[in-house]
Amino acid sequence: MKLALFDLDHTLLPIDSDQSWGDYTIRIGWCDPTDFKRQNDAFYEDYLQGRLDIHAYVRFATAAAVARGPAVAEAARAGFMQEVIEPALRPAALALIERHRSAGETLVLVTATHEFVTRPIAQRLGIPHLIATELARDAQGWFTGEIAGTPALGPGKVSRLQQWLEAQGLGWADVDATFYSDSRNDIPLLEKVQRPVATNPDTVLRAHAQARGWPILELFSPA
C-alpha cells in the first residue's frame, strides 16, 4: 500500500488550527481575552520548542467546549471552519493532496491536534483517514477534557500509525509511505517512513533534513 501521510498545522495549513481555535473562542466570548490568550500562547510556544505537556494542554483547550455541550460547541466549530479554516486553505496544499489522491495512494492526516478541531478539517481536505489526538468521552458520549489512548504527538505518531496499520491488517513492511511535516516534533515519524519530506520546516527540522539529505518543500510562505 502506498501511503501519503500529512501533518496539518503549518504543513497543509499556514496556521496552527489548535491555537486558532483558542483564539476563535475568545472572539465569540467563551474565554477571557487576556488570561486565556496568555496561556494559549504559552502552550503553543511549548509545542514549538518540543516540550508540550499535551495532557495539560488538551484539558485547557477543550474546557470551554466541554462546558457548553455538543450542540453549542459544534455550532461554534462550524463557524470556525467557515471563518478561520476556509480562508487558510491554500491552492498549493490542495494540489499536493490531489496529486497523491490521483496516484491512487491512501491519504492519512496525522496530527497532534485533537479530533474535535481536526475531524471536519480532514473532511474538508478530502482526506479519508484521520489519526489525531483522541478525546475521552463520558457516559453521554461527550468529551471529558482528557485524552483517550496515546496522543498523536512526537513518538506517539509512530505508535498511533502502527496501531492504524495493524487495524488494516498491515505492518510497516507492507507500506510505502511519504510523510510531510513542518515540525521537529515529527522527526520520529519522518525517520520511520520511506519518503520523509520536510515541509515549510522549522529551524530544527530544516537542519535535520539538510543533514539527512531529505527533500525540503516550501509549500507556502508562513501566515
Would you kindly provide a written description of the structure presented here, covering whatever features stand out?
The chain is an alpha/beta fold. It has one domain: Rossmann fold. Helices cover 50% and strands 18% of the residues. It has helices spanning 17-27, 35-48, 54-68, 70-88, 91-102, 115-125, 155-167, 187-192, 203-212, and strands spanning 2-6, 106-114, 129-133, 135-137, 143-147, 176-181, 195-199, 216-217. It has a 6-stranded parallel sheet. Strands 4-5 form a two-stranded antiparallel ribbon. Helix 1 (17-27) runs antiparallel to helix 2 (35-48) and helix 1 packs across helix 4 (70-88). The longest helix is centred in the middle third of the chain and has 19 residues, at 70-88. The protein is globular and about 45 Å long. 38% of the residues are buried. The mean pLDDT is 96.
Topology:
Layout: E1 2-6, H1 17-27, H2 35-48, H3 54-68, H4 70-88, H5 91-102, E2 106-114, H6 115-125, E3 129-133, E4 135-137, E5 143-147, H7 155-167, E6 176-181, H8 187-192, E7 195-199, H9 203-212, E8 216-217
Parallel strand pairs: 1-2, 1-6, 2-3, 6-7, 7-8
Antiparallel strand pairs: 4-5
Helix pairs in contact: 1-2, 1-4, 3-4
